[in-house]
Design a protein that fits this description.
25% strand; binds methionine sulfoxide; 6-stranded antiparallel β-sheet; single chain; Beta-Lactamase; 158 residues; alpha+beta; 5 helices
């Protein structure tokens, strides 16, 4: 079940081009197909008011989330990762896919500014460990390092 995030990093980096849409899309697909037991992996980007759905792999999902709402909006507002072992026990959890049982959300932080979140859902209870958080932070850092900060801070998705 454990993924060697460090060992997979060069493979991930080989897919990164420096184009934000291309890289966010491939990042979602890379995570979805590298981590076992996921039913959704993807991005929500902040447009200045709300989080809007970005590239993802999985069933069609809710298109807008307000900061402070659900697991995604809470992690975004706190600017901190949020690991939820059982989504039924998280007040305000937003159901996108009935199959989801546990969730991990990581904020996308750029020079201290939160620009969005990366969200992972699993059909298994307690699927995510702290080692997943650490590994995904490593991968997200590699992703953001590759992209021009002025492009991202300009919110090209809005
Ligand atoms: N469950 C999330 C909503 C996004 S979907 O899972 C793709 C939440 O509570 O924020």
């Amino acid at each position: 079940m454990d993924v060697d995030f460090k060992a997979q990093l060069p493979l991930l980096e080989a897919y990164l081009t420096g184009h934000w849409l291309t890289d966010f899309a491939n990042f979602s697909a890379f995570v979805f197909h590298t981590l076992p037991s996921l039913n959704w992996a993807g991005f929500y980007f902040f447009d200045g008011t709300k989080l809007t759905l970005g590239p993802f792999v999985g069933r069609p999902a809710c298109t807008e989330i307000r900061p402070g709402r659900g697991v995604c909006g809470t992690a975004f507002e706190r600017r901190a990762p949020l690991l939820v072992p059982n989504v039924d026990e998280f007040p305000g959890h937003i159901v996108c896919d009935n199959a989801s049982r546990s969730e991990l959300v990581l904020p996308l932080l750029l020079n201290g500014t939160a620009i969005g979140v990366f969200d992972l859902d699993s059909p298994d209870l307690a699927r995510f460990q702290d080692s997943d958080r650490v590994g995904l932070e490593l991968w997200i850092a590699a992703l953001l390092r590759k992209l021009p900060p002025d492009v991202l801070l300009g919110r090209p998705w809005a």
